[in-house]
Amino acid sequence: MTETHTLTVNGEVHEVACPGDTPLLWVLRDRLGLTGTRYGCGAGSCGACTVWVDDTPVHACDTPVWSAAGTDVATVEGLTEAGPHPVQQALIDHQAGQCGYCLSGIVMRGAALVDSARSARRPLTAEDVKAGLDGHLCRCGAHTRIIAAIVEASTGMSDEA
Ligand code: FES
Ligand code: FES
Questions:
Q1: Which residue of 38, 92, 102 sits with most ligand 2 atoms within 8 Å of its CB, as the best mutation to test the pocket?
Q2: pLDDT tens, residue by residue, 83-110
Q3: Is the pTM of this model over 0.70?
Q4: Hey, what domains does the chain have and what are their CATH numbers?
Q5: Which residues are bridge partners to 57 per DSSP?
Q6: Does the C-beta of 24 come closer than 6 Å to ligand 1?
């Protein structure tokens, strides 16, 4: 049944008419034009569709739109108000992407990890990042550089580039 859902995405309020079980991913990409969030597996297994709902990373492919109503959704397009997030800068510095398909999801997960580590004043270890990225697939096998970049972002070194 089609219903109207009120969503706040990257600080903007949208009214979207669709069935409540429509995946948030389809609303973001097809209705709001936010195609930075990627469709990989569609089954909660690859992490390509990761966005934040109330500052917590979730898979947009298995989040029904009804459950996102009344929350603050952030996508890679709205991660920062100006300039790259330290994770994005570090990924650039390390030339960590190849095809880049996995990276918007990894950026959203990595930014949550880095923001938390910086708040706690405890930089991430490679093991922390590996555990944090456990649900993210990179088909290009760029994991080594991605992990190094996220560790560096947590230290603040990427801010000085
Ligand atoms: S597309 Fe959502 S986890 Fe793969
Ligand atoms: S850079 Fe290609 S899938 Fe990760």
A1: 102
A2: 999 999 999 999 999 999 999 999 999 9
A3: yes
A4: 2-78 (3.10.20.30), 86-160 (1.10.150.120)
A5: 52
A6: no
